[in-house]
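Response to reviewer comment R2.3. The reviewers asked that we include at least one raw input/output pair. We reproduce the pair for Solute carrier family 2 member 15a here without editing.
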Amino acid sequence: MEAEGYRTQLTWSLLAVAFLTSFGSSMLYGYNLAVVNSPAVYIKDFYNKTALGRNGTALSGETLTLMYSLTVSVFAIGGLLGSLIVGMLVTRFGRKGTVVKTTVLVFIAGSLMGFSRVCGSPEMVIFGRFITGIHSGISLSVVPMYLGEIAPKNLRGFLGLVPSIFIGTGVFSAQILGLHQLLGKEEHWPLFLSVVVVPTFIQLMLLPWFPESPRYLLIEKHNVHATITALKWYRAKCNIQAEIEEMQDEQRSLSSVETLSVWKLLQDDTVRWQVLSVVIINIGMQLSGIDAIWFYTNDIFENAGIPAPEIQYTTAGTGIIEIIAGLIGCFTIEKLGRRPLMIGGFAMMGLCSAGITLALILQAQLSFMRYVSVCCVVGIIGGFCIGPAGVPFLITAELFKQSHRPAAYIVGGSLNWLSNFTVGFVFPFLQMSAGSYCYLVFATICVSVAIYVYIMIPETKNKTFMEISQMFSKKEAVLETQSLTHVDQLKLKKMNGYGGVEHASLEFNSSSSVP
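Raw output as returned:
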């Protein structure tokens, strides 16, 4: 009955925090992914003119491409750095404290990029992109962690997917603002890059008024009074005593209240399946090929015969699909659960990736295949945004107790950014060597991740963090029992057939081979 006591209590304060953290942090990640696409020509021209003014000679084609590639990819390097320091930040400053304090990075980056042309400094653009990357690396981990901890268990999925909707909104905002009629003109590109300071300023004005994560306050800071105050903010008419008792149960179950390091997390046998699951879904999220699809959308649309001037509007249309798919995921996750969204999303992406390969091979013979490839692009983007875009970050929060959670986010986040960087680096070479068949690599990865989720990851919908931990403990026990039963059966067969000496030797062998 107590669990029913705080069902469906979506309060204005919960919605406000989900909106503010996602609007001022998560949205910036999506915006910065897409912002450098439309002003690419103007940025390269600025780099060239600056070099001409400094050295009297223009940059070579190779150097210019290298500088622009660095401008794009340095964002991922910053993201990796941000994901590696997030554990230290959330333990020291808290979840909300980290979100608020890291806003300074956005203002520094926005100033660098905004004044880069006035100062005639390409280095300011590149360094500004690096700093926005650090902020996004921190945000991608801390926002789902914060929302996962303030949400009641029956709303954790809904609130956990709000950031992924805002990531899609960020991509769409960059596509719309990048249109020639808005900020897509040459004179506006510094403003286009630095407009990220506006949502962060709104976040900084309003978020400090809201309380810190109650779980952080109670389990890590032992502040019962602040925990009660925070829960009263975030809950409507419900018995908060039940939630406090559940947190205290978790606190008592922790072998150490100290936050674990990544090395200790990887050594902890009790969470090995959770760690493996986080590794696979975070790597799978990026190696699914979504970045390659986003990068080559224009080429695929051009191939389908869409007139060149209209491609920018068609690409913006894919941004709307991202937002709609994200909303569908957000409003169905508490009804369907996490598993169906992940399995369905990855399976759909796998099917559509194979479809793109087929369409590219057959489009010379069958003209309608060009339109099939467009449908497959839409299918991949929709499949990604409905589940794989947001659920991995939510699952990372749900699979671990308080002491393990920051280290788990470091593992998941760093692998996510490394995989992102790898795809961006390897895909052009993969496309050159494998041609149309390169999408089959992504199809195989997507289907493999879907199968792993189906077999290994239990449904976490409407479960407390303690219940989820116990589900994995049971899985561990079942797997160990099956392994021991199998060994015992082997011993029994051997003993029945050949007698005690053979049995003894097998027992020695099996014990030495089974860890």
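DSSP finds 26 helices and no strands in the chain. The chain has two domains: 10-210, 263-490. Further pairs are available on request from the corresponding author.
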